[in-house]
Amino acid sequence: MTLLDFYIQQRLSFADGVALLRSHQGAALLSTQTWTRLQMLAQQGTPPDKYNLGKLTDALAKIKHHPDHPAATIGPAAPAPTDAQPNTATSARAKRLHKEHSHHHATMFLATTDAERAAAAEKVLEVVADLDAEYNRIREGKGMEEDANPAPAEGIRSEAQILRKLQTIRSRISEARRKLSKNLSPQNRQEIEAKLQKLLAEKESLEDLIQ
């Protein structure tokens, strides 16, 4: 587990995330200017934009979390992460949300820019909140009743949209493989192979959403 996993599971605030990074000497991963800016935002309580959130989450993702570290107490006490809760009762919507969570979590670690990583992290946090709300409804006896006529969860892509995206990705995978069959410079081959691995991971993640 990385500090980013811990940050997401505990639903920590931006300020808590900065404190978490500080406690693990993570400032060394950032430029002095960036670290100073993140600390100022945290102190002011200013909601971070995607760029600065991306800088924080990128640094957190590079450090392993250890449960016995003093920083494990940072932030409010929280229940076990939703996707780790024992589910004796569930709903169709909860199952869709779990798949959506897996997709965004995979996207977050496949992201190549801070902005992409921050956007995926935001989606993960949104889905975790939706899952918590859904399991609250189930505990109240409401979630199971709604399964008779399940409505698509807000933010969840329709199957048709996923299939269209899959078709596009499969075409790009075929194109990448055709390029790899040609004579390429080592640098070009490495770039295309990296792109292909990212496309294959995204394809697998999307296929999980419609299974």
Structure description:
The chain is mostly helical and about 210 residues long. It has three domains: about 5-75, no CATH class; about 90-155; about 155-210. Helices cover about 65% and strands about 0% of the residues. The protein is built from nine helices and no strands. Helix 1 crosses helix 4 (about 50-60), helix 5 runs antiparallel to helix 9 and helix 8 (about 160-180) packs antiparallel against helix 9 (about 185-210). The longest helix has 26 residues, at about 115-140. The two termini are about 25 Å apart. Residues about 75-90 and about 145-155 have low confidence and may be disordered.
Protein topology:
Blueprint: H1 3-9, H2 14-23, H3 32-44, H4 50-61, H5 92-110, H6 114-139, H7 143-146, H8 159-180, H9 186-209
